[in-house]
Structures are given as structure tokens and as C-alpha cells.
Amino acid sequence: MKKNYISLITLFILASCSSVSEDDLLEPIILEPGETVNYTEDIKPIMENNCTFCHSSPPVNGAPNALVTYNDVVNAVNNSNLIDRISRASGEAGAMPLGGPKLPQNLIDLVIQWQLDGLLEN
Ligand code: HEC
Question: What is the pLDDT of residues 44-100, one digit of tens each?
């Protein structure tokens, strides 16, 4: 009994130590049936981690627009080819993030799905 208890604790500790690896990032994102992509939970973190370094408000490093608010990002999808820009190969003219590696495909897919779902805020 005591032994079982200890292995349960060990299991719990191991499970809570898991971290996000490169492999996790490349796995496709599977949405539950009926689940939609939304800006606040899914898209905002992608912009904060990869884009607002330049696309801040006001934008810096030559970026023409901010990608800080929901409206900023919706505008860029609708009028500034945001999805096309992040889909270009690294090093291709106009590829975003500028100078950086291409985003992992699962994150690009998430932005594409966000558009298909209707660019929901929440
Ligand atoms: C190192 C700075 C930098 C980073 C990081 C960066 N950008 Fe840019 N971005 C620029 C610059 C400079 C331009 C203007 C030149 C051009 O259009 O290619 C630009 C232009 C754009 C445009 C076209 C805007 C327009 O009105 O024509 C979009 C869309 C865009 N970026 C999206 C993104 C997204 C999405 C990310 C994150 C995945 C990102 N950028 C990361 C610097 C950056």
C-alpha cells in the first residue's frame, strides 16, 4: 500500500514537470468538435511571442502597423495579407516574422482556422 502511494506521488511529480518541447509545437492542433479558435486565447499569444517586438503600438523597426489589439490583428488579416505573410518561407521577400524563422506550422494553421471560424474575439 505504501509503495503504491509513493509511485502515485512520483507519477504526479513527473506529470507536472512536463514542458513544451519543439516536438509539441510541431504537432497539429486538434480542436474538439464545435470548438472554435478565438483571438484572446489563441491568437493574441502568438502575436505577443512573435510579432509585437516590432508591431508594437506605436510600431518600431520599420513595421508599418501595430498588432497589439484585436482590431489591429483583424485589420491585418483582412487588409494586409497577414496570413500570406506568415505562410511565406523564411528568407522569402515579405516573410513574417521579419528576419526570424517561420512560425511552426501548427501556429500558422491556427491563424488560418481563426479566419475560417470568423475572426472571433472570444
Ligand atoms: C523584426 C521586426 C518584425 C517582426 C518581429 C515582425 N514584423 Fe511584420 N513587418 C516588419 C516590417 C519592417 C514590415 C514592413 C516591410 C514589409 O511589408 O515587408 C512588416 C510588415 C508586415 C505586414 C504588412 C503590413 C502592411 O500594412 O503592409 C504584416 C501583415 C506583418 N508584418 C505581419 C507580421 C506578423 C504576423 C508577425 C509575427 C508573426 C510579424 N509581422 C513580425 C517587421 C517585423
Answer: 999 999 999 999 999 999 999 999 999 999 999 999 999 999 999 999 999 999 999
Pocket test for ligand 1, best of 48, 68, 96 (most atoms within 8 A of CB): 96
Percent of the chain scored above 70 by pLDDT?
78
Give me the long-range contacts of 94-100 (CB less than 8 A, separation at least 24): 96/51, 97/50, 97/51, 97/53, 97/54, 98/54, 98/61, 98/63, 100/50
The preferred substitution site among 98, 105, 112 for testing ligand 1, maximizing ligand atoms within 8 Å of CB, is 98
